[in-house]
Write a structure and sequence with these properties.
- This protein is mainly α.
- It has one domain (2-14, 29-115).
- Helices cover 69% and strands 0% of the residues.
- The protein contains 6 helices and no strands.
- Helix 1 (2-13) crosses helix 3 (40-60).
Length: 117
């Protein structure tokens, strides 16, 4: 369950920008490498962030599904709410960092960024 919430959260943070694909469309085994290589405090922080931001916060804001089951506008509202709350803001920063690790773990994304004008 936590892994699903971690994926929902990271995908919500990087929905794509036109030239680059959304994180949800990337293939790869980032999460197995993350489990093997990330320090325990980062893995714990990401798990807590996923539970709080993707699992609990949407429900506290009146949404029944977790973050991944919400329409894009509602996902954005949940994330913007998290940015305004002190503890959740810190958890969101952890999730953003892990989302960037996951995104730039993809060879295609790295190539596209390196080749960009």
């Amino acid at each position: 369950m936590i892994r699903r919430l971690e994926k929902e959260l990271t995908c919500a943070l990087l929905p794509g920008t036109g030239a680059l694909p959304p994180l949800s469309e990337l293939e790869g085994d980032f999460w197995s490498r993350f489990d093997a290589a990330a320090p325990p405090h980062l893995r714990l922080g990401m798990g807590v962030a996923a539970l709080a931001l993707a699992g609990l916060l949407p429900r506290l804001l009146g949404h029944l599904p977790s973050l991944g089951g919400l329409p894009a506008a509602d996902r954005d509202r949940v994330l913007h709410t998290a940015e305004r709350l002190p503890l959740l803001r810190d958890l969101l920063e952890v999730a953003k960092m892990v989302a960037c690790f996951a995104y730039f773990d993809d060879d295609g994304v790295q190539r596209a960024v390196r080749e960009a004008p």
